[in-house]
Amino acid sequence: MLYNVEKPAVAANAPRSGRGCLITVEGIDGSGKSTQISRLAASVRAGGIQVIELREPGGTAIGEAIRKILLDCRHTGMSEETELLLFAAARAQLVREVIDPALDSGTWVICDRFYDSTLAYQGYGRGMDLDMIAKLNGFAAGRCVPDLTLLLDLPVEAAVRRLSGRQEKADRLDGESLAFMQRTREGYLALAARESGRIVMIDAGQPETVLARHIFSIIKEGFGI
Per the structure, how many domains does the chain have? Predict the structure, then answer.
Protein backbone atom coordinates (compact mmCIF):
# COMPACT_ATOMS: atom_id res chain seq x y z
CA MET A 1 0.00 0.00 0.00
CA LEU A 2 1.39 3.42 -1.00
CA TYR A 3 0.76 6.42 1.24
CA ASN A 4 1.08 10.13 0.63
CA VAL A 5 4.61 11.23 1.38
CA GLU A 6 4.67 14.58 -0.39
CA LYS A 7 3.03 17.85 0.61
CA PRO A 8 -0.69 17.58 -0.21
CA ALA A 9 -2.33 19.94 -2.66
CA VAL A 10 -3.98 21.88 0.16
CA ALA A 11 -3.33 25.37 -1.17
CA ALA A 12 -6.17 25.15 -3.68
CA ASN A 13 -8.56 24.24 -0.87
CA ALA A 14 -7.20 26.67 1.74
CA PRO A 15 -9.90 28.79 3.38
CA ARG A 16 -10.24 32.43 2.45
CA SER A 17 -8.60 35.01 4.70
CA GLY A 18 -10.29 35.26 8.07
CA ARG A 19 -12.22 32.01 7.73
CA GLY A 20 -11.43 28.95 9.79
CA CYS A 21 -10.25 25.63 8.42
CA LEU A 22 -12.27 22.40 8.37
CA ILE A 23 -10.17 19.27 8.78
CA THR A 24 -11.96 15.94 8.74
CA VAL A 25 -10.44 12.66 9.91
CA GLU A 26 -11.66 9.42 8.35
CA GLY A 27 -10.96 5.70 8.56
CA ILE A 28 -12.54 2.41 9.50
CA ASP A 29 -13.27 1.71 13.16
CA GLY A 30 -10.05 0.93 15.00
CA SER A 31 -7.86 3.22 12.92
CA GLY A 32 -7.12 5.50 15.89
CA LYS A 33 -9.00 8.61 14.80
CA SER A 34 -10.06 9.82 18.25
CA THR A 35 -6.56 9.70 19.69
CA GLN A 36 -5.00 11.50 16.75
CA ILE A 37 -7.70 14.17 16.68
CA SER A 38 -6.98 15.03 20.31
CA ARG A 39 -3.24 15.22 19.63
CA LEU A 40 -3.69 17.31 16.49
CA ALA A 41 -6.07 19.75 18.19
CA ALA A 42 -3.59 20.26 21.04
CA SER A 43 -0.76 20.94 18.57
CA VAL A 44 -2.82 23.45 16.58
CA ARG A 45 -3.92 25.23 19.76
CA ALA A 46 -0.29 25.49 20.81
CA GLY A 47 0.20 27.60 17.69
CA GLY A 48 -2.33 30.12 18.94
CA ILE A 49 -5.24 28.97 16.77
CA GLN A 50 -8.72 28.46 18.21
CA VAL A 51 -9.92 24.91 17.55
CA ILE A 52 -13.04 22.88 18.31
CA GLU A 53 -13.24 19.09 18.11
CA LEU A 54 -16.43 17.47 16.85
CA ARG A 55 -17.69 14.00 16.02
CA GLU A 56 -20.22 12.55 13.62
CA PRO A 57 -22.93 11.76 14.29
CA GLY A 58 -23.19 14.16 17.21
CA GLY A 59 -21.85 17.55 18.22
CA THR A 60 -25.29 19.03 18.91
CA ALA A 61 -28.16 18.05 21.19
CA ILE A 62 -30.12 16.82 18.17
CA GLY A 63 -27.10 15.05 16.69
CA GLU A 64 -26.29 13.26 19.94
CA ALA A 65 -29.90 12.07 20.19
CA ILE A 66 -29.67 10.72 16.64
CA ARG A 67 -26.35 9.07 17.55
CA LYS A 68 -28.02 7.13 20.34
CA ILE A 69 -30.66 5.85 17.93
CA LEU A 70 -28.09 4.85 15.31
CA LEU A 71 -25.79 2.99 17.72
CA ASP A 72 -28.39 1.37 19.96
CA CYS A 73 -27.93 -2.41 19.80
CA ARG A 74 -31.69 -2.87 20.17
CA HIS A 75 -32.27 -1.29 16.74
CA THR A 76 -31.17 -4.28 14.69
CA GLY A 77 -34.19 -3.85 12.44
CA MET A 78 -33.12 -0.42 11.19
CA SER A 79 -33.31 -0.26 7.41
CA GLU A 80 -30.37 0.94 5.32
CA GLU A 81 -32.44 3.88 4.11
CA THR A 82 -33.29 4.96 7.66
CA GLU A 83 -29.64 4.70 8.68
CA LEU A 84 -28.54 6.82 5.73
CA LEU A 85 -31.11 9.54 6.39
CA LEU A 86 -30.33 9.69 10.11
CA PHE A 87 -26.63 10.25 9.40
CA ALA A 88 -27.54 13.00 6.93
CA ALA A 89 -29.93 14.63 9.41
CA ALA A 90 -27.29 14.73 12.16
CA ARG A 91 -24.78 16.21 9.68
CA ALA A 92 -27.19 18.91 8.49
CA GLN A 93 -27.76 20.04 12.08
CA LEU A 94 -24.05 19.98 12.94
CA VAL A 95 -23.09 22.04 9.89
CA ARG A 96 -25.68 24.74 10.43
CA GLU A 97 -25.57 24.92 14.21
CA VAL A 98 -21.84 24.53 14.84
CA ILE A 99 -19.46 24.11 11.88
CA ASP A 100 -20.48 27.01 9.62
CA PRO A 101 -20.67 29.57 12.48
CA ALA A 102 -17.30 28.39 13.82
CA LEU A 103 -15.59 28.65 10.43
CA ASP A 104 -17.12 32.07 9.80
CA SER A 105 -15.68 33.28 13.12
CA GLY A 106 -12.18 32.09 12.17
CA THR A 107 -12.20 28.99 14.37
CA TRP A 108 -10.68 25.78 13.08
CA VAL A 109 -12.83 22.63 13.19
CA ILE A 110 -11.43 19.11 13.43
CA CYS A 111 -14.21 16.61 12.88
CA ASP A 112 -14.18 12.87 13.52
CA ARG A 113 -15.89 11.75 10.30
CA PHE A 114 -17.86 13.76 7.76
CA TYR A 115 -19.60 12.97 4.48
CA ASP A 116 -16.83 10.67 3.19
CA SER A 117 -17.90 8.24 5.91
CA THR A 118 -21.37 8.02 4.40
CA LEU A 119 -19.97 7.23 0.97
CA ALA A 120 -17.60 4.63 2.42
CA TYR A 121 -19.97 2.92 4.86
CA GLN A 122 -23.42 3.26 3.34
CA GLY A 123 -22.22 3.45 -0.26
CA TYR A 124 -19.37 0.99 -0.60
CA GLY A 125 -20.04 -0.97 2.59
CA ARG A 126 -23.79 -1.42 2.21
CA GLY A 127 -23.89 -1.13 -1.56
CA MET A 128 -26.27 1.83 -1.75
CA ASP A 129 -26.30 4.11 -4.79
CA LEU A 130 -23.22 6.35 -4.71
CA ASP A 131 -24.68 9.13 -6.85
CA MET A 132 -27.77 9.33 -4.65
CA ILE A 133 -25.58 9.48 -1.52
CA ALA A 134 -23.42 12.22 -3.05
CA LYS A 135 -26.51 14.33 -3.73
CA LEU A 136 -27.80 13.74 -0.20
CA ASN A 137 -24.39 14.66 1.22
CA GLY A 138 -24.47 17.89 -0.76
CA PHE A 139 -27.93 18.71 0.54
CA ALA A 140 -26.98 18.00 4.16
CA ALA A 141 -23.58 19.75 4.13
CA GLY A 142 -24.54 22.71 1.96
CA ARG A 143 -21.53 24.92 1.25
CA CYS A 144 -19.43 23.12 3.85
CA VAL A 145 -16.54 21.26 2.20
CA PRO A 146 -13.47 20.00 4.09
CA ASP A 147 -10.28 21.93 3.43
CA LEU A 148 -8.35 18.75 4.13
CA THR A 149 -9.31 15.16 4.92
CA LEU A 150 -6.88 12.86 6.71
CA LEU A 151 -7.59 9.20 5.94
CA LEU A 152 -6.04 6.94 8.57
CA ASP A 153 -5.72 3.68 6.68
CA LEU A 154 -5.35 0.35 8.43
CA PRO A 155 -5.84 -3.23 7.21
CA VAL A 156 -9.08 -4.74 8.47
CA GLU A 157 -7.31 -7.51 10.39
CA ALA A 158 -5.23 -4.96 12.33
CA ALA A 159 -8.32 -2.86 13.05
CA VAL A 160 -10.17 -5.89 14.41
CA ARG A 161 -7.28 -6.68 16.75
CA ARG A 162 -7.42 -3.15 18.09
CA LEU A 163 -11.19 -3.26 18.49
CA SER A 164 -11.00 -6.51 20.46
CA GLY A 165 -9.10 -4.65 23.16
CA ARG A 166 -11.68 -1.92 23.60
CA GLN A 167 -13.18 -1.60 27.05
CA GLU A 168 -16.28 0.35 26.06
CA LYS A 169 -19.55 -1.40 25.29
CA ALA A 170 -20.02 -2.50 21.68
CA ASP A 171 -22.61 -0.61 19.62
CA ARG A 172 -24.93 -1.65 16.78
CA LEU A 173 -22.33 -1.02 14.07
CA ASP A 174 -19.64 -3.04 15.84
CA GLY A 175 -21.45 -6.20 14.80
CA GLU A 176 -20.76 -5.76 11.09
CA SER A 177 -18.90 -8.51 9.23
CA LEU A 178 -15.27 -8.49 8.16
CA ALA A 179 -16.49 -8.38 4.57
CA PHE A 180 -18.40 -5.18 5.32
CA MET A 181 -15.32 -3.61 6.91
CA GLN A 182 -13.21 -4.62 3.91
CA ARG A 183 -15.69 -3.09 1.46
CA THR A 184 -15.71 0.08 3.54
CA ARG A 185 -11.92 0.29 3.57
CA GLU A 186 -11.82 -0.26 -0.18
CA GLY A 187 -14.38 2.53 -0.51
CA TYR A 188 -12.12 4.90 1.39
CA LEU A 189 -9.20 3.96 -0.84
CA ALA A 190 -11.30 4.65 -3.92
CA LEU A 191 -12.32 8.06 -2.56
CA ALA A 192 -8.69 8.91 -1.78
CA ALA A 193 -7.62 7.98 -5.31
CA ARG A 194 -10.41 10.09 -6.78
CA GLU A 195 -9.82 13.17 -4.59
CA SER A 196 -6.08 13.10 -3.96
CA GLY A 197 -5.94 16.89 -3.73
CA ARG A 198 -8.15 16.88 -0.64
CA ILE A 199 -7.75 13.44 0.92
CA VAL A 200 -4.34 12.54 2.34
CA MET A 201 -3.96 8.82 3.04
CA ILE A 202 -1.75 7.99 6.01
CA ASP A 203 -0.50 4.66 7.36
CA ALA A 204 -2.36 4.30 10.67
CA GLY A 205 -0.19 1.35 11.68
CA GLN A 206 2.64 3.65 12.75
CA PRO A 207 3.38 4.12 16.47
CA GLU A 208 0.97 6.65 18.01
CA THR A 209 3.58 9.37 18.62
CA VAL A 210 5.18 8.96 15.19
CA LEU A 211 1.77 9.14 13.54
CA ALA A 212 0.89 12.31 15.46
CA ARG A 213 4.10 14.01 14.33
CA HIS A 214 3.45 12.96 10.75
CA ILE A 215 -0.09 14.35 10.82
CA PHE A 216 0.98 17.67 12.31
CA SER A 217 3.76 18.03 9.74
CA ILE A 218 1.13 17.75 7.01
CA ILE A 219 -0.94 20.50 8.64
CA LYS A 220 2.07 22.77 9.14
CA GLU A 221 3.23 22.40 5.56
CA GLY A 222 -0.23 22.65 4.05
CA PHE A 223 -1.50 25.64 6.00
CA GLY A 224 1.68 27.42 7.05
CA ILE A 225 1.17 27.36 10.81
Answer: 1
